[in-house]
Write a structure and sequence with these properties.
alpha/beta, about 375 residues, pyruvate-formate lyase- activating enzyme
Length: about 375
């Protein structure tokens, strides 16, 4: 997703960072502005969410990160946690998904990049030196798409090479894009890096995932990545319920296994559409005419998010799990942001505090037993 940015805002603390200088020379932009107080870039007074969110996709900010950059994924109360570790590398995304929490969570009309990777490496070294009961799994896809801008940023190869030194951990890149050139030159490809795609039927992509790659483009890129030696991952998340969901989602499974063979895929996650009540105004103002967001959802305890009724979610998960098992009975399938009860009824699996422990079937990285 190469594009020209309108403005790159540069904080003076990172102005002399070598990566900042490289990015200013590599990223197409109209102007560069040094600014110390990034909070001044907050949404303009009386600016509507649509204008603010879209303006942010064409401005870039290079800034220092305040606080720890590596942290646990914020699991909802009462949900079985997958013990994922988030690397905050970029905040904001050039893709415009209707359901994206970032449109309300990030109150700054820029995509913010944190170029001081040495800080991340230092934090990771401290964590990875410890003894882990289950394999630690890290990823950069929480506050942005891992690869949508990586052909410009080129941060992912540095992280892949870093994690190659820690074979008892997993490193995952998550994307809805098709630009994978930045990681194809890594040689050798470490066996503990997984490149994952969020997937949905093309009907959902066309309606809800503006500026994202098509399903066929994503799977073509997955084939390139597989051929380069990477493990693959797939995330059916969020899953939408509509009249022909069974036909469409089964077709996605079939398309995945037209590209991937048994053993190519490290894991597949399933998660139905869900959102917090404070997201409703963004849906109303930006996506009022999107029928897929207007399903039969209700507030569900204990996390108080809007969700499909539990029996419907269980039906959806059971169906997808069966279709996947028909193609690949060995791949690890898990649920995202669901309770132990839903795990039990949907997948027939008992989970405790963490759902991805080695003892519960989650695949260990190649170096785990070494």
């Amino acid at each position: 997703m190469i594009r020209e940015f309108d403005t790159i805002f540069v904080h003076p603390e990172v102005a002399n960072n070598p990566r900042t200088r490289e990015l200013l020379g590599r990223v197409p932009h109209r102007r560069a502005v040094e600014i110390e107080q990034m909070e001044k870039l907050a949404r303009r007074s009386r600016e509507d969410p649509q204008s603010s969110v879209m303006r942010g996709k064409f401005n870039l900010a290079l800034a220092p990160y305040k606080g720890r950059q590596v942290e646990p994924c914020p699991a909802s109360p009462g949900m079985s946690c997958c013990c994922y570790r988030v690397i905050n590398l970029v905040a904001g995304c050039p893709i415009d998904c209707s359901y994206c929490v970032l449109q309300g969570y990030l109150n700054r009309p820029t995509i913010t990049v944190y170029p001081e990777l040495e800080k991340i490496f230092s934090e990771l070294e401290g964590e990875l030196a410890a003894e882990w009961f289950v394999p630690p799994r890290y990823g950069t896809g929480e506050l942005s798409d891992s690869l949508a801008l990586d052909n410009l940023l080129r941060f992912s190869p540095e992280l892949i090479r870093f994690f190659a030194k820690y074979p008892k951990s997993w490193f995952e890149l998550k994307t809805k894009g098709a630009q994978v050139e930045s990681i194809l030159d890594v040689d050798p490809v470490p066996p503990n890096t997984v490149v994952s795609w969020s997937v949905n039927p093309q009907k959902v992509i066309d309606s809800e995932e503006r500026f994202a790659a098509s399903l066929d483009q994503r799977l073509e890129a997955a084939g390139q990545v597989r051929d380069a030696g990477y493990k693959l991952g797939f995330h059916f998340d969020p899953i939408f319920h509509y009249d022909r969901w069974r036909r469409d989602y089964r077709e996605v499974v079939e398309k995945i296994y037209a590209v991937a063979r048994s053993g190519d895929i490290a894991w597949i996650s399933l998660g139905c559409l869900r959102y917090s009540p404070w997201m409703a105004p963004y849906y109303e103002e930006r996506f009022a005419k999107h029928p897929l967001l207007a399903g039969e959802l209700s507030l569900v305890p204990p996390d108080g998010k809007y969700r499909y009724p539990q029996p419907l979610r269980i039906e959806i998960y059971r169906a997808l799990n069966e279709w996947i098992a028909e193609r690949d009975s060995d791949v690890y399938v898990y649920l995202c942001m669901e309770s132990a009860t839903v795990f039990r009824w949907a997948l027939g699996r008992e989970v405790a505090g963490d759902c991805l422990g080695v003892e519960r079937g989650f695949p260990p990285p190649p170096g785990w037993s070494g």
